[in-house]
Amino acid sequence: MILRRVIAHFRKQEWTAIFLDFVIVVLGVFVGFQVNNWNEVRKERADESAALSQMHEEVVAVEDLSSRILSDRLATLHFLSEIVDRLYAGTDGAPTDDHCLAIASSHDLYVGLADLPSYMQLQSSGRVGIIRDRPLLQALGGLAQARQALEFALANFGPRLINLAEDHAGVVLLAPRTISVANAPALTERDYAAVCDFVAFRKSPALRNALVSNLEYFDAFARDGLRPWVRELGNVHDRLDAALSIIHDERP
Ligand SMILES: [Zn+2]
């Protein structure tokens, strides 16, 4: 229709009308592009909001698991350090069941590493750019670095740890048991108690060497791997809470 009108204006050499036709066409194209852009931006904002909400749910689930594991591993580190100090320095205090349990699990670095699938999906589809919150992007980058460090610690320290209950069953004896899961009392998990012959540890340099070696690698794993990862996970959670205006009564 506009084309027929332009041809008619050309035949009559109505230059002002031709100019106006031209302006109408250009404006029409421009408005079309703008509407398209606005729709794209609106869709990206909706996708960003959905991705952040999903990421928040995932981070809460990972934190629930990691906080329980962190507290178990730090307890092992604490009692392992204490019993090594007592065995070497002869400081006061009799060894307890907690010290024995720490010795029996001093080879166990299990972490339950979990990903944030929503972030991985954005990465694999090249759409990380829809996240506009720069501090959140920095926190996600920090988490990725901390995860690499934790994976390095697991791969390099894990094989060097000695399973004392397996290699020295005569001095570290396991007793199977079922206990409640720490932050989910309705659930149970298989576990073990341990009985240790501490006199044998005092007498045997080989046993004490194994213990000191485990303590060194366990300490490095907690300091350079597990703790930074849990800290970076908390940073990501902080940024997501801020972006989504979420306030928790309590956080792990
Ligand atoms: Zn939160």
Structure description:
With 252 residues, the protein is mostly helical. The protein has helices at residues 2-11, 15-89, 97-104, 117-124, 134-157, 164-167, 198-203, 205-244, and strands at 172-181, 184-196. Strands 1-2 form a two-stranded antiparallel ribbon. Helix 2 (15-89) packs across helix 3 and helix 2 packs antiparallel against helix 8 (205-244). The chain is rod-shaped. The termini are far apart. Bound molecules: zinc ion.
* Helical residue percent band: 55-70%
Radius of gyration: 31 Å
Cα distance spanning the termini: 67 Å
* Strand order of the biggest β-sheet: 1-2
Number of strands: 2
User: What profile does the largest beta sheet have?
Assistant: 2 strands, antiparallel
Mean pLDDT reading: 90
Instruction: List the ions, cofactors and other small molecules found in this model.
Output: zinc ion
Q: What is the succession of H and E elements?
A: HHHHHHEEHH
The total of helices stands at 8
Q: Which structural category fits the helices and strands? A: mainly alpha
Q: Can you tell me the residue ranges where pLDDT is under 50 for at least 5 consecutive residues?
A: none
Q: Roughly what fraction of the amino acids lie in strands?
A: 5-15%
> Overall 3D geometry?
rod-shaped
